[in-house]
Amino acid sequence: MDFMANEHQVRPETTPNPASFTKVNYGGQAVIEGVMMRGSRALSVAVRNPQGGIVVHTEPLDARIYGGRLARVPFLRGLTLLWDALGLGIRSLLFAAEVALQEEGNVDANGEPEKVFEGPLQWTLVAFSLAMSILLFFVLPTFLAHLVERLFGWDGSPVAVNFIEGMIRLTLLVGYIWVIGLMADVKRLYGYHGAEHKTINAYEANAELTPVSVARFPLEHPRCGTAFLLSVVVISILIYSLLPPLDLLPRILSRLVLLPFIAGIAYEFLKFTAAHQGNALIRLITRPNLALQRLTTREPDMGMLEVAIAAFENVLAYERSLVTVQAGDTVISPVAAGEAAPTGAAAATVDAVPSR
């Protein structure tokens, strides 16, 4: 998932009210047979349904999180945005699963996917996903490093012990990404991840948003969530090395307590480096982040690019309509032609060529 602020202007030749836009945040996430794209005001999920069409769901974001005071407080904003991004990602994945269930006739009276996953179940899944990630990539490496320390009878320095712990954490992260990438379904997910990156790269280069044009652009993007994970691992090695030697339980607790602080630093680091990619030193520093993305992306086919473009164009049009409404203009909803400007969630089915 990409969640970092995007430091570029919306193209004025296509914006109904350019003065209303300043800095825009475009990121996204691959989902099952689809892509979620997120801006600063709205998100859109486009998913290929079993019949070969593209189902698009678009909704506004919480202005208190993305436009409020917290969004302007360094380090703290990273925590709030990351938590919300996790929730949005889970919801997008569940929407994609609901679209897949259409094959079994699970649709509501309006022909939209039946909402099987929502309410307490949705947030239970968010909490479970977060807990498993912390257990696998933070608690387990700390425990394994403690075993290594006991095995060799080290009283070792915090720097050496924490470096070993960091290497274990990095090995688990890279190994996990590589192993699940061998699965056929995950390979397709990584293909949609590549389509998401290429689409955003094409837009930022002011290129035409067609599958043929977008296909020419790189798979890597400096704001990718994969880069964030690697940054967290590296920064954790530095931060934990400042701690004195601790027994196992206090050591695990220290990792959990400091994790939000480390995540906030990683967010600001990626925000800074993404905004300074023109600097040769910054590009050198972020090269490992981009290299790791080779494991989480695949070259997308034209059908995947169609889906990513549909999601991006929908969120872009939706956000522009919101700005136009705020300016007092009349606007046609970009999500469903002929309806009023969007004030809540909206969904539409778009005809498209089946994935090739």
Automatic annotation (TrEMBL):
Q: Which domain of life is it from?
A: Bacteria
Please indicate if the UniProt record lists Membrane as a keyword: yes
Give the matching InterPro entries. Answer: DUF1385 (IPR010787)
Membrane-crossing ranges are 125-147, 167-184, 226-246
Keywords (alphabetical) are: Membrane, Transmembrane, Transmembrane helix
Pfam families, alphabetized: DUF1385
Record-given protein name: DUF1385 domain-containing protein
Q: What is the lineage of its organism?
A: Bacteria, Bacillati, Chloroflexota, Ardenticatenia, Candidatus Promineifilales
